Amino acid sequence: MELHKKIAITRKSIGLTQEKLADLTNITVRTIQRIESGKSSPRTFTIKIIAEALGTTFEQLTHESQNHDSLKESTIPEIISDLENEKHFLKILCLSCFGYLVIPLVHFLIPIYLLKKSGSYNTQTIAFGRSVIRQQIYWGITLSFSLLLALAYNFIVVTYFKEFYLLHYLWIFFIMYILNALLITVSFLRIKTINF
User: Which positions, given as ranges, span the membrane (predicted)?
Assistant: First the structure.
């Protein structure tokens, strides 16, 4: 297998983006892109830095495999399968957020549990999962704060004004529940755009 393909496959198999590899090696993203596309032939020093960042050796990257076809046939489907598994997991994680319909203020514990149990080492999967969990925590805080504001408003209106209009708590629940359903749906749809 050609060097540039080995670098790209190895990088994807450990869940690194080109940007992250560039950060780890102090090589520009453009150079990484040119190396992986085969437009640029890296020097020995550059290959050694990339190999170290990928957790492999110079020899493993540069050695032309004798089982060239079997390596290509077995590695690429495994990587594609792993990426599909990561996307499938993220979809389940997003759908688990609908637990707010049953347990609204602590439902974020379900995706936290799923993320910990997944055992995924893919940095993008972990980052996306954490962002979904943060979003759900913020939603819970916003719901609680909105209900407290409604309570304060109703208390002030009843105490100090003779003509009053009380704010009904169910309106807040309905609005916040619909908003969270939209947030979860947007996160679910964003999974398709993730490039591992």
Answer: 89-115, 136-156, 168-189
Q: Is the pTM of this model over 0.70?
A: no
> Phi and psi at residue 108, in whole multiples of 5°?
-65, -15
* pLDDT, tens digit (0-9, with 9 covering 90-100), for 43-76: 888 888 888 888 888 888 887 543 444 444 445 5
Q: Alpha-carbon distance 74 to 71, whole Å?
A: 5
Q: How far apart are CA 111 and CA 129, in angstroms?
A: 8
How many other C-beta atoms can be found within 10 angstroms of the C-beta atom of residue 180? 22
Superfamily classification of domain 3-64 = lambda repressor-like DNA-binding domains (1.10.260.40)
* Cα gap 183→139, rounded to integer Å: 9
Domain boundaries, the chain: 3-64, 93-193
CA distance 171 to 176: 8
Sequence-ordered strand ranges (E) for 15-158: none
Contact 132, 25 (CB under 8 A): no
Residues 132/107, Cβ–Cβ less than 8 Å: no
